[in-house]
């Protein structure tokens, strides 16, 4: 997944999905589901992921061992959002 931004433009310039042929549904359909499910404006990303909670101190934990796959309640961006889609 790729999201591209320009300074001063609230909406992303582009949103791109490429599963490299491993997707169970076509990339175009995944892209449609993603665009319907997420608000990619930077301010909304910050709100939806609760990035300002606790100040910058919570990000210090990512300095050691990163943040991927860790079960830490401070890492709100690791919470999986279920997506709704109709199977063909």
Biggest pleated sheet: 2 strands, antiparallel
Tell me, briefly, the overall form: globular
Q: Provide the residue-averaged pLDDT.
A: 85
Number of helical runs? 2
CATH topology: the name is GMP Synthetase, Chain A, domain 3
Number of domains: 1
What would you say the CATH architecture is? 2-Layer Sandwich
**Strand order in space, largest sheet:** 1-2
Helix content: 10-25%
Helix and strand pattern: EEHH
**Computed CA radius of gyration, to the nearest angstrom:** 15 Å
Give the helix/strand class: alpha+beta
The rounded distance between the terminal residues' Cα atoms is 23 Å
**Percentage beta strand:** 5-15%
* Count of strand segments: 2
Structure description:
- The chain is of the alpha+beta class.
- The protein has a single domain (2-78), classed as GMP Synthetase, Chain A, domain 3 (2-Layer Sandwich), CATH 3.30.300.
- It is built from two helices and two strands, in the order ββαα.
- The chain has helices at residues 27-37, 42-48, and strands at residues 2-4, 14-16.
- A two-stranded antiparallel sheet has the order 1-2.
- The protein is globular.
């Amino acid at each position: 997944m790729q999201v591209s931004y320009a300074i001063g433009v609230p909406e992303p310039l582009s949103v791109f999905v490429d599963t490299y042929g491993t997707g169970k549904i076509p990339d175009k359909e995944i892209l449609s589901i993603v665009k319907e499910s997420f608000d990619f404006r930077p301010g909304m990303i910050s709100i939806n992921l609760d990035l300002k909670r606790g100040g910058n101190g919570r990000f210090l934990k990512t300095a050691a061992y990163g943040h991927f796959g860790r079960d830490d309640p401070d890492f709100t961006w690791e919470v999986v959002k279920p997506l709704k889609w109709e199977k063909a």
